[in-house]
Design goal:
single chain, five-stranded mixed sheet, Aspartate Aminotransferase, domain 1, binds pyridoxal-5'-phosphate, alpha/beta, seven-stranded mixed sheet
Length: 404
């Protein structure tokens, strides 16, 4: 049977201490031992099922991690305090001084800044490439390369990575393929396509209520154990641990992810089609005009659609700002970064989430001034939303009156 991530999450049962339908929350930073020997063994990593200290792990964090591992089809997972708190330990665990990373050039601004400005301090260099061109990716690999890094659907340009193709290259050169799947939970399961490590910012669709930051690393038991090792584990030592109370609340939100993703995708598809018909330059992986539409289709779990993210280009930053302000005034969404909320969120990436990327590089990758990124919300009546959006666009002369 086909791997269905929503089913695998749903099939995990956790009961609370008193038969509660939700697992009990472990509201403790430290744990007692009946014998000193067990404490020693736990430190050495030899006492399964024993908890030591909550920066290492806690029952609540393990529940959430298991559910996310079930979603991605990996052996296990480690949750973290934020998406960056997942990404940075992974890269520092896999690379040492002198190593090299090949990364997609269109990635989350924070990840880009980390690879461009921060890891060079430790003599870890990154080549940024067009990830959609496998020959260019392969040509960038050197004898020092350890990691291939990309996002399944990239931020903000919505480029789609050929994960199976990248996995073949990773195998050939003995690299770890690390995929940030934040934009396409449930729709794409990178580990099933050959990725070694899958990362999410839980802050976005997975938690879905814009009330916290959080992250996860999904991978093999061996790698997650390395991250959590008390002696040299980057997650353990850098300390980006999620709080137990928050892990419990993210797990409850995860329960409705499949329903939300369907609605996000439904609404984004509707808007993308209408915007394109109106003559706006629209990018959405669900449109036949998207250069990787067929690739996305070949990788996706159909039920969950092409996701909630789309971009339009309205020509200039001034027009983009005017439109976003007007849409906010009409209560169509909020001028805000982030994504995956019930309400539509929009921002101009060039001056916000991707502002870490220098202007000349933005131009080279096609990140234009007039670009608006939409995280389409859960609107009950997307037709009504579209009608009002179109009025805003007429009012600002972004759309010229169409003959009727
Ligand atoms: C937001 C985001 C991150 C960073 O996650 P935080 O939870 O903000 O630390 C990483 N990757 C992508 C694709 C994101 O959208």
């Amino acid at each position: 049977m086909k791997f269905n991530p929503a089913n695998t999450i749903q099939d995990l049962q956790y009961f609370g201490e008193f038969g509660g339908v939700n697992p009990s929350i472990s509201d403790s930073s430290t744990y007692t031992f009946l014998s000193a020997k067990t404490m020693f063994d736990t430190f050495e990593g030899n006492a399964d099922g024993c908890y030591l200290y909550s920066r290492h792990t806690s029952p609540s964090n393990l529940y959430l991690g298991e559910a996310l591992a079930a979603m991605e089809g990996t052996e296990t997972a480690n949750v973290s305090a934020s998406g960056m708190g997942a990404i940075t330990p992974v890269l520092l665990q896999l690379c040492k001084s002198g190593d090299h990373i090949v990364s997609s050039r269109t990635i989350y601004g924070g990840t880009y800044a980390f690879l461009k400005n921060f890891t060079p301090r430790f003599n870890i260099e990154t080549s940024f490439v067009d990830i959609t061109k496998l020959d260019i990716v392969e040509a960038a690999i050197t004898s020092n390369t350890k990691v291939l890094y990309c996002e399944s659907v990239s931020n903000p340009l919505l480029e789609v990575a050929d994960i199976a193709g990248l996995a073949r290259i990773a195998k050939k050169y003995n690299l770890q393929l690390v995929v940030d799947n934040t934009f396409s939970p449930l729709s794409i399961a990178p580990a099933k396509l050959g990725a070694d490590i899958v990362i999410h910012s839980l802050t976005k669709f997975i938690n879905g209520s814009s009330d916290t930051v959080g992250g996860v690393v999904c991978g093999t038991q061996e790698f997650i154990d390395q991250l959590r090792n008390v002696n040299d584990g980057a997650s353990m030592l850098l300390g980006s641990t999620m709080d137990s109370l928050r892990a419990a609340s993210v797990l409850k939100n995860l329960r409705t992810l499949h329903i939300r993703m369907k609605q996000h995708s439904h609404n984004a598809t509707y808007l993308a089609q209408k915007f394109e018909e109106d003559g706006l330059k629209t990018v959405y992986p669900g449109l036949a005009s998207h250069p990787s539409h067929e690739l996305f289709k070949s990788m996706m779990n159909d039920e969950y659609g092409f996701g909630g993210m789309l971009t339009i280009d309205v020509g200039s930053i001034d027009k983009a700002n005017q439109l976003m302000e007007l849409m906010q005034k009409r209560n169509l969404g909020y001028l805000a970064v982030s994504l995956g909320f019930y309400k539509t969120l929009f921002s101009a990436p060039g001056t916000s989430t991707s502002s870490e990327i220098p202007e000349d590089e933005q131009a080279a990758m096609g990140l234009t001034d007039g670009l608006i990124r939409f995280s389409v919300g859960l609107d009950n009546d997307i037709q009504r939303t579209y009608t009002i959006m179109r009025e805003c666009m007429f009012e600002l002369n972004i759309l010229k009156p169409i003959l009727v």
